Amino acid sequence: MATYNTNEFRGGLKLMLDGDPCTIIENEFVKPGKGQAFSRVKLRNLKTGRVLEKTFKSGESVEAADVMDRNLAYLYSDGEFWHFMDNESYEQYQADANAMGEATNWVKEQDNCLVTLWNGTPIAVEAPNFVVLEITETDPGLKGDTSGGGGKPATLETGAVVRVPLFVQTGEKIKVDTRNGEYVSRAKDD
Amino acid sequence: MTQRYAGDWRPGASLDVIKTRAALLKGVRAFFNQRDVLEVETPLLGASFGTDPSIEPLESKFTGPGYPGGKRLFLQSSPEFFMKRLLATGSGPIYQVCKAFRNGEAGKRHNPEFTLLEWYRPGFSADQLMDEVASLICSLVNVPNLAVERLGYRSLFLDHLDLDPLEAEASELCRCALDRNLLGAEGMQLDRDGWLDLLMTSFIEPELGREGLTFVTDYPATQASLARIDPEDPRVAKRFELYWKGLELANGFEELADPDEQSERFEQENCRRYSTGQKPMPVDDALLSALEAGLPACSGVALGLDRLLMCQLDSADIEEVLGFSLARL
Questions:
Q1: CA B271 to chain centre
Q2: Strand pairing partners for B104?
Q3: Inter-chain contact B110–A29, Cβ cutoff 8 Å?
């Protein structure tokens, strides 16, 4: 079993805590001038996304989590699982809805996603920062409106709903920032 | 931390901060000059080192004339022992600004090499010395009406945690941490003082010195370090710490002058070091001889100047007040 000593703690290090893989967000060295040293660590639970703070006695060792981030191509969804493939090894992985989280709103076949694997299983999926998706439904906007002010809801091919300017129409492709779910621009047709 | 500034040749502190530090040093010297306290220098490299199990040395070795096989030397964690040898020689009140070193300590409030202002006042009680520490800081940071309070270690624990730190068993201290949802306390292996340190740093320290300077006084006798035990209450020592804005700035003692008790503490601490797998430290016989010869009744204090600068500049990272921290070496 691989372990990390508190001296190895740094942002991004992956640890096992109470059976869940966690990543270190921040590590603070705490020590009274004449007393015991501690590491006060802020961590994110990679399964639940929750942030917690935990204190370790300096010098303690903690089990390492076998976690890695991989760029995988999204293939398809069978309704229960979302299937991904490593384009180099052709190895396939399946992520459940929990691991997909918000990414289900944005991914479309052949998109490359950052997938966090724990013991070889996806536990978190990050959609690309920007995606191009087709609008499947939106109210016809007023002709001549190009200001983009106001806006209206538009349903995308993935089922996600975003606010778009009035001049954008059904059937058009738009660029969306997946980090905040906001419309960026019309996508150029190529 | 290690890779943070790799390739960056510039100092962490801005030129303004470097100038503030220079003004601080000038202020320190003016303050003690006015009070007829003598500036002294003592070696940064010594043949012995304190036995305190919570302080680990950085070691070096001299090889040369007289020492063909090499002489083991320690970068000093404080000039205390040398300054006490000066006091026992009859120096009268003395101060020095010097570098101090500690292995294993690095973070937003720690750097393995740091700047200390340490001074000793023959004839002063801890109370008198606390007054002088407050006057010094007020004069240095130009805040004439900085609030100053003194709180006993015991009353702090009673107020914040409803716990008597002088009486509670280790198991009660552990339960207190668990009751307050301190994650990680479960399964932590600590002795009684370790639990007190955990509670202090987690729940009390962040609240200290919010309105001004807070002196914490009367530490448990088990944390006496080099302070004498209070003759009126042997459960506590004449030791104090200064906090400002949640930052520990200074540690002071009414100094232990009894050579036998000092020798006993060295031995006990080395036993503790041995039991936890730490290397025992060579005992400073010269200090014991100086105490035999007679250390005048005195109080002494060490003030971290880097941290004082942090307080003055409202900085949360020691990196910002140091030219070249560990990460920039």
A1: 22
A2: none
A3: yes
Q: Looking at residue B184, what is its pLDDT?
A: 95
**Distance of alpha carbon B322 from alpha carbon B112, whole angstroms:** 12
Instruction: In whole angstroms, give the CA distance from residue B226 to residue B110.
Output: 22
For chain B, positions 62-121, list CB contacts with chain A under 8 A. Answer: 104-110
- Indicate the residue type of B237: A
| B211-247: pLDDT as tens digits | 999 999 999 999 999 999 999 999 999 999 999 999 9
| Chain-chain contact of A28 with B107 (C-beta, under 8 angstroms) | yes
Rounded Cα distance, B186 and B173, in Å = 12
Contact present, B40 and B84 (Cβ < 8 Å):
no
Tell which B residues from 34 to 73 touch A, by Cβ distance under 8 Å: 52, 54-55
Helix (H, G, I), strand (E, B) or coil at B26: helix
Please tell me the distance from the alpha carbon of residue B310 to that of residue B17, in angstroms, as a whole number: 10
DSSP B255: B
Kindly indicate the confidence band of residue B19, based on its pLDDT and cuts at 50, 70 and 90. very high
Q: Give the mutation candidate from A31, A42, A61 for the B interface (greatest B CB count, under 10 A).
A: A31
Amino acid A8: pLDDT: 96
Tens digits of per-residue pLDDT, A68-118? 999 999 999 998 999 999 999 999 999 999 999 999 999 999 999 999 999
Least trusted range by pLDDT, from A47-51, A94-98, B150-154, B225-229: A47-51
Contacts 24+ apart (CB under 8 A), B188-191: B188/A55, B188/A56, B188/A57, B188/A60, B189/A57, B190/A36, B190/A57
What are the tens digits of pLDDT across the range A3-23?
999 999 999 999 999 999 999
Contact A36 B108 (CB under 8 A): no
Measured CA to CA, the distance from residue B141 to residue A139 in angstroms comes to 65
Query: Is B251 in CB contact (< 8 Å) with chain A?
Result: yes
- Check residue A144 and give its pLDDT: 57
Among A33-37, A58-62, B19-23, B144-148, the range scoring the smallest mean pLDDT is B144-148
CA-to-CA distance for A32 and A169, rounded, in angstroms?
64
**Domains plus CATH for chain A?**
3-63 (2.30.30.30), 67-126 (2.40.50.140), 130-186 (2.40.50.140)
> Which is nearest to A131 in space by CA: A149, A104, A152?
A104
In whole angstroms, what is the distance from residue A67 CA to residue A12 CA? 11
Per DSSP, chain B holds a count of helices (H) and strands (E) of 9, 11
Q: What is the bridge-based pairing of β-strands A38-45 and A51-57?
A: antiparallel
Q: Which two tokens stand for residue B156?
A: 């702090």
Which has the closest alpha carbon to B193: B222, B159, B215?
B222
